[in-house]
Structures are given as structure tokens and as C-alpha cells.
Here is the input.
Amino acid sequence: MIGRFVANVAAITSSILLVWGIVWVLRHHSPIRIDDNSPAGQVAINYQDLVSIMLAAVSVILAALGFVIAVLAVIGWRSLDSRVASVAIAFLKKSVAEGGEIHDIVKSEAKSIIFRGIEPMSSEDESAMDESSLVTEAKAKEAKSE
Here is the structure.
């Protein structure tokens, strides 16, 4: 945590120093002066022109930054997509294997579908089945003997 803080402070400080250095160099060594009392051989520029130039530069920088972010987003999405697919496939293989979560769920659902509507027989039902089966067997024997 402290290392990240130090890195952020160093980045901000170096950025400020870089901008200050660029401004100092442009102010003292540039042929362009931002005042109307410029010496001979130097170009005078008024504030409206300076603001126009700076806004145009900012527009170009933002367009380039947007392009870079778009390219990184496409690349990142493809790598994220492939990683998610591989993790999902590994999870499903593990879950569908014998004893896995999905395997157990599918197995219990299949059993409930197979045995739906089939109820266990009570002892009364079994005795009634035995009597009716005896009657049908007797009728079958009578039919064969005739």
C-alpha cells in the first residue's frame, strides 16, 4: 500500500516537473512571444490564436488516446473472452464428471422424471393384485381346457 502511494507521488511530481520544464523552455527559447512588444525577428501571437492552437492540440491528443483505448479494449476483450471460455469449460468438465455437482443434479432429475407417477404399492394393493391375478390365471386355464 505504501509502495503504491510512493509510486503515485513520484509519478505526479515527475509530471509536474516535466510540464514546468516544457513551459520554461518554450518561454525562454521559443521565437514565439505572447505579447505585443516582441523584439524584431520574433513572431507575436495573441491569446486567441494561442488558445486555438492549444485546443487543436488537445483535440488531437484526445483522438489519439481514444484510438489507443479502443485498440486496448478490443485486445482485452478477446483475451478476457478466451480466458472466461477456458475457465467455464474446465468448470463444466469437473461438474459433469461422476460425482460432480451437475452430474448429481441431472441424475436426481432423471430419476424423478423416470419414476414420476409411479407410487409404491401398499399391502392392501398387493393382496388385491394377488386375488385378481389368481382370477385371471384361473380364467386362462379354463380357456385353455375348453
